[in-house]
């Protein structure tokens, strides 16, 4: 299971925007909806997961900066969402699998982006 409390082991050449796109694909929620004020359950889960992965893979981004990526959400909303998603992943095997699959795609893309940059 992924440990979303830990930063990525290396600075990854993957953008926060790309992480949002990857999570959107896995959760079948649109990027536009993730940035919208809507708050239905599947959308909130996708938003929390994307924010947690961004915090893990782009630790240079502050909570306020991450909040701006999701339609100007307050930093405290991002912090609270991270706590919620970690707990939900721990208790829900289906969500844990979805989170793991999304992170595998993030890792894959970060790794191959880095390799492309190195030549």
Question: What key phrases describe this protein's structure?
Answer:
globular, 0% strand, mainly alpha, 71% helix, 119 residues
Overview of this structure, please?
There is one protein chain. The protein is mainly α. Helices cover 71% and strands 0% of the residues. It is globular.
The gross shape turns out to be globular
**Number of alpha- plus pi-helical segments:** 6
The topology string of helices and strands comes to HHHHHH
The SS-based structural class is: mainly alpha
Helical fraction: over 70%
Number of E-type strands: 0
Rounded mean pLDDT is: 89
The value of Rg in angstroms is: 13 Å
Percent of residues in beta strands?
under 5%
Instruction: Report low-confidence residues grouped into runs of 5 or more.
Output: none
Major sheet: size, sense and barrel closure? none
Kindly report how far apart the N and C termini lie. Answer: 32 Å
